[in-house]
Amino acid sequence: MEPKEKGYQQVNGIRMYYEVYGSGKPLVLIHGGGSSMLFDFKEIISRLEGQFQLIGIDLQNHGMTDHRDIPETFEQDAHDIAALLKALHIGKAFFWGFSNGGNTVMQVARLYPEITEKLIIASAFYKRNGMMDGFFESMAEATLESMPEPLKINFLNLNPDFSKLENLFDKDRKRMQTFKDWDDEVLSSIDVPALLIGGDKDVMKPEHIVEMWRLIPDSQLMILPATHGSYMMADFEGNTDSNMINLTVSEVVKFLNH
Fold this sequence. Notes:
The protein is α/β, with parallel strands linked by helices. The chain contains 9 helices and 8 strands. The longest helix has 16 residues, at 162-177.
């Protein structure tokens, strides 16, 4: 699993890091909060690099991309992704966003419909009450110590500057603390096919993902017996359910090729 291309592009005032695997139709991979492209998508890349051109991106303050001293927003991340794809001469693409990355790809579809072909929205949300009970209360109290250890280790391996880890945590936490419910119109205006994926033991309630599925006109729904992301990556204990990931990938391929 070696990237065909990797490097930095200067966009919107920061250097953004990206990697490209395989060839075929472009599928852009957008990681979740506190994470990086390979942490979230390593299992997916290993299974799909023979079928698509996979473009993994580290978002602002994450992985190997530069840091900004402005608040993180899903809209800003969408602007950065669009600018990076333009710099890479990618016209139209599929997008797969996990967790906060799922929120981000919905904003890509809203703000840049001309570059969006299909969406995979994995473990995302659009209203505060869609998260499991107590999520936002715990976010209000969150400290760097409460950040999952595998995410801290991953960040410091890519970027051994502790002050940058603190900045990442601070920006991610503030984005969650200040999150305001999206209008239903954000979802109902998505005019490309979308596949929504969630786990029955996810951090967003399955019924919330059903609500999102009802709002997006041309959408499919897949709720799996899984925790947050364990249907596409190792869980935080390091356990990988290969059969579950294979199932997810086969459904994604069917959706993208249909």
